[in-house]
Amino acid sequence: MTNSKKVVLVGAGMVGMSFAYSALNQNICDELVIIDIDKERAKGEAMDLNHGLAFSHSNMRIYAGDYPDCEDADIVVIAAGVNQKEGESRLRLLTRNAEVFRSIVEPVTKSGFKGIFLVATNPVDIMTRITHHLSGFPASRVIGTGTTLDTARLRYLLGEYFHIDPKNVHAYVMGEHGDSEFTPWSQALLATKPVLNVLSTNAERFNMEDLERISDEVRCAAEKIIRAKRATYYGIGMAMSRIVRAILSDAQSVLTVCSRLSGEYGRYGTFVGTPSIVGRNGVERTVELSLTEEEMESLHKSCDILDENFKSLNLV
Ligand code: NAD
Question: Which one, 40, 199, 258, 268, has the greatest CB density within 10 A?
């Protein structure tokens, strides 16, 4: 029995390798196994990262592996799948990626893996639910990246707008990682001051229209980046590292990961991005916010879309 922290990454594409690169630079685990359907690619990526080890503060063991390597892993990170094309909705990727996931989740569970799944593949909320369905794991051990990246984008943009360190901006993007996501402004704080109070006391400088513009910018960020450089990967790679670090260090961090609702906000079974406490057991619990009626409607709209899309797959 060792305390060695082992992570298996399935999917050595741009997102997977951005995660791996940031994981190496942040030294977040002791062993990193890379699996890809393209075995040569996985080998090449492992070699490339290993050649950077001498310049890092890490002694990480990095190698290309296969599904039996998942047996004693703490976390299996899935970033495999087909990428979102320009103009393609995340939900349209669904059917293609559901098949990819069958070929991944089954051999992972067969290996005897008893850790935590972290899913990044889009549409991430549904892919997370598919992983839960296929693995039969307890919901607390199946996590999606959810709206963690969107939340980071929101905090960055609010930091710029209010001229405040994003780390002191406490605001969340909730719901589907996609078109129906929303920002519950009633819950947004600058340090301990509600953003809505900041607006009412500084009406000459700040206004709701600007906040809605920021919210739209967050929603359209992926599309904008894809138009400019074909894909997004650094931000999501760092979000994945953040979640993995929270799990491995039992940080009990509040992150807007995708997790299953069990009665919170009056919903059961939907996997969706909401603030949750993340630690060694995966999602330890959901932090239920006091949403306004309108915000609650937005969350339900997102959940309805996700439930419908999941059901349309008729998974057995
Ligand atoms: P990519 O095409 O660069 O990489 C995908 C990798 O998956 C490839 O290396 C491919 O060989 C591998 N793969 C495909 N089928 C496989 C299988 N059956 N088994 C093992 N490996 C397989 O794509 P990318 O840019 O890395 O994006 C990966 C996913 O991440 C996409 O679904 C993308 O939409 C998603 N993404 C999510 C977020 C988020 O916020 N959650 C952000 C950006 C991208």
Answer: 258
